[in-house]
């Protein structure tokens, strides 16, 4: 092997990886948007067969030798290539420790399990989904042990979603939040009880809500030739490359805030997807630095912009024009207060900015218990409900509104939830830094996103997965992650609504 | 190799074939529906890379030996397996004669060419698309020669889309139509000139048109769990298996007949896709006997049902309820006449039932000339226009409304057009047979599709691609293909509107 050939082979491997990633990504996107209900079995089978193909193509002696050769000759590679090679080696190490048949079985299990979850949620039958939770936790624990039996399995999973984060880091983060934020929650839920928000559940025509979604993305300067908005039960974003990003939302006639804020949230993910450096297209370094960093971008647009007084003042006249019958008797300030009103609520994705992280803590603590204390899945609904009572003072009336509400465990996404709370905290830290050079509040008040988008692109988004979250935060903020910014932001906002 | 292992290997091959077919099919469907405009390049690259993978997986010594072994031991296989093996061997023979690099280049060319066509059509610049037409004809001619240099290339292509049909058959068919149908066209275009159809271009709200689409598919007894309706520039159907069929339509506010009849047409394709025998799911025998047979089903629902007096009488009160402002002053009989009014028109997909086949003849004759007379692509617009003048007495004002109107050549679908006209003719022959046992007109008048659907399912649809078109027509009608039914139907209908 010489370096020229090795690079050529590597480029071919990358093109192949991208081809599978693209078509399987589209197939999943389709499955969650337009595909007919009964299509899931055949789709599951097709995807599991292809995941076996992908395993065979990427986990074998030739690829291993190629990667080793490139690593040895790192000096001859450009910076981007070294990063790509490192990432392939990392993925190789992870995947190759899992036997192929178990790997394929797992993709089949994900499909079945997701379907079982949908049915259980619909019918409020936790007992039909419980065996899948058990299997998902068992399988993930086993896979983690295959990968490194010297570490705690849950630490390995946390690191998968947020590199460099272990239980002790997440514990510290949540303990800090508990100390700093929980008192504000107690205060502000009571203090702001009287805020009027009845108008948010008036009937807002869905075609007008759809119009609003595109008005928002136009304001955020997103190019309609490069992205599209679809609809799905649970909003999500699929970013395939700088020319092909899709996000979804869900329109409820009597919940204007739902499509408004899910559009702002997913637009944040989508802007990240559209702003990767062009040189990353078709490479393994697309997709963002981590789940937490991705979530920092979505929270940024959803909360720091979308729930700010400045942006609401800017967009509100447009909304009154779109919804004259629904909003004529409501002022911008009333709307601002209504969408920020802190409430103890049951459903994570409908939670306000302040109480949101409590929902995450419940999930994190349960995952931690499943790994560390080996509890039985039968006990989970009771544990869930008691934690909601403890943190939020509210008990779910049924499992559909309790432990069955989230899709994540059905896909085996365990260790994922903490990244939601980290994302909010990262976003506050980024904005503090941004404000040193960008007149953030003034620009937002004018609906001018040129400089705001540019800062995020230049400091975060363009790097894709080149840097780890820790490296990226250090580069962008010139200091390490510090949850103080987040707590200060919440304290400041929710003591002066 | 023993028979048990061979069957096992074959089943694995089939599952793999289906996995690629499914995900690449979804990717194409997505590309034509929701994908953002600028996504085409990356999609084209991904699909061409995977088409190379598919080639390598299916065209090699092992597969060849496996298929030969199964063919030799045919006696030990069940009926369905023998049909599958035959089909794999046939496809193997076709594909293996084309060198892999040319095969991959061709899929890339298709993507580029399709994009060039879209731009040329939009901007009325035939000259930018002409080189692609040349390449597409050249490549298809070369591929046909690789496959069998003892036959005429165009005969090989015609046979691809309609097995058993060569130029002489198509010539005979069109000559018969010219003799029998052209005189009726001349008569009826003049005779029915006064039919009122102004109301078809009133403003019909798009959300109501969408509602109508689902009302129609409900009447046709299509299960919404198994199919979905999307939107695209050109309506089409993607049938993946009995649980996953999608069709598209296009809603124009001022063209109610467009979405109505494209829905009926694509519903016909979709019903075929939903009614394959369950044992064909995941196999190479899904997808219909031929393009012509598929088109017979779509034409059946679009024209023989959708444009019949009985069905219009049945559906019309519902339409008046949906569109009271637009249709209150129009009777069912006026609507029936308007959607059947024969007109000489420029655009194939908007043509009435009677003049439709003339549009096909123009295309067939041009394709035939490209192969047999070796004419230059620069001459094509002039030839196109003179043929429209000759057959329809009308000259396109520009190429967008002339030679650039159809997508087919951009994808290299050459030899495909005749199947549209054959489909209409097959449909008339099927209905004549069906009427021996089903009271077709009476059932339609009641909106009762149980027996009509059942006849089509039992005699045509359930067989998928098990039989050739010729075999299928013989089985269903107890005689060979006869265009007389079609001509009689047109004569009868268009002399008594």
Attribute tags:
homodimer; 497 residues; mainly alpha; Neurolysin, domain 3; 2 domains; three-stranded mixed sheet; 64% helix; globular
Any overview of this molecule?
The structure is a homodimer of 497-residue chains. Chain A has 497 residues and is mainly α. Chain A has 2 domains: 3-124; 167-496, Neurolysin, domain 3 (Orthogonal Bundle). Chain A has 21 helices and 3 strands. The first copy, chain A, has helices spanning 3-32, 40-58, 61-72, 79-96, 100-123, 126-147, 153-161, 167-191, 206-219, 256-274, 291-305, 309-322, 324-327, 332-340, 356-372, 380-392, 418-434, 440-445, 450-459, 469-477, 484-494, and strands spanning 227-231, 237-241, 244-249. A 3-stranded mixed sheet of chain A has the order 1-3-2, sandwiched between helices. In chain A, a hairpin with a 2-residue loop joins β2 and β3. The mean pLDDT of chain A is 96. Chain A binds chain B through residues 15-16, 18-20, 22-24, 26-27, 29-30, 33-39, 41-43, 45-47, 49-50, 53, 207, 224-228, 230, 240-241, 243-246, 281-282, and chain B through 15-16, 18-20, 22-24, 26-27, 29-30, 33-39, 41-43, 45-47, 49-50, 53, 207, 224-228, 230, 240-241, 243-246, 281-282.
């Amino acid at each position: 092997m010489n370096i020229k050939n090795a690079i050529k082979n590597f480029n071919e491997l990358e093109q192949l990886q991208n081809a599978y990633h693209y078509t399987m990504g589209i197939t999943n996107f389709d499955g969650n948007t337009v595909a007919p209900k009964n299509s899931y079995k055949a789709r599951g089978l097709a995807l599991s067969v292809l995941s076996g193909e992908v395993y065979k193509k990427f986990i074998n002696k030739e690829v291993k030798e190629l990667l080793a050769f490139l690593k040895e000759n790192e000096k001859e590679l450009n910076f981007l290539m070294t990063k790509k090679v490192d990432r392939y080696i990392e993925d190789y190490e992870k995947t190759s420790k899992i036997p192929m048949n178990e790997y394929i079985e797992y993709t089949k299990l994900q499909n079945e399990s997701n379907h079982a979850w949908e049915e259980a949620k619909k019918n409020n039958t936790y007992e039909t989904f419980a065996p899948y939770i058990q299997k998902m936790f068992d399988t993930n624990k086993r896979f983690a042990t295959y990968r490194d039996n010297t570490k705690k399995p849950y630490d390995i999973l946390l690191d998968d979603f947020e590199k460099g984060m272990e239980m002790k880091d997440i514990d510290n983060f949540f303990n800090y939040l508990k100390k700093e934020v929980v008192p504000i929650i107690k205060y502000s839920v009571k203090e702001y009880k009287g805020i009027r928000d009845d108008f948010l559940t008036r009937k807002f025509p869905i075609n007008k809500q759809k119009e609003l979604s595109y008005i928002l993305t136009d304001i955020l300067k997103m190019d309609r030739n490069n992205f599209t908005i679809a609809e799905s039960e649970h909003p999500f974003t699929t970013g395939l490359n700088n020319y092909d990003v899709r996000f979804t939302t869900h329109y409820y006639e009597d919940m204007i805030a739902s499509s408004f804020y899910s559009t702002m949230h997913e637009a944040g993910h989508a802007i990240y997807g559209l702003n990767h450096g062009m040189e990353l297209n078709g490479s393994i370094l697309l997709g963002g630095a981590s789940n937490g960093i991705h979530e920092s971008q979505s929270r940024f647009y959803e909360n720091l912009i979308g729930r700010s007084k400045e942006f609401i003042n800017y967009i509100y006249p447009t909304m009154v024009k779109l919804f004259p019958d629904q909003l004529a008797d409501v002022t911008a300030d009333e709307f601002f207060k209504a969408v920020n009103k802190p409430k103890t609520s049951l459903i994570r994705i409908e939670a306000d900015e302040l109480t949101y992280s409590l929902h995450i803590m419940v999930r994190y603590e349960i995952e931690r218990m499943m790994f560390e204390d080996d509890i039985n899945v039968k006990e989970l609904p009771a544990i869930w409900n008691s934690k909601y009572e403890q943190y939020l003072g509210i008990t779910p009336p049924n499992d559909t509104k309790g432990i069955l509400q989230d899709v994540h465990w059905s896909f085996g996404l365990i260790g994922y939830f903490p990244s939601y709370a980290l994302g909010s905290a990262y976003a506050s830290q980024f904005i503090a830094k941004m404000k040193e050079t960008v007149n953030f509040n003034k620009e937002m008040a004018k609906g001018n996103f040129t400089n705001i988008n540019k800062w995020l692109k230049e400091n975060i988004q363009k790097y894709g997965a080149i840097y780890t979250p820790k490296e990226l935060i250090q580069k962008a903020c010139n200091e390490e992650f510090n949850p103080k910014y987040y707590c200060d932001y919440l304290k400041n906002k929710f003591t002066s609504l």
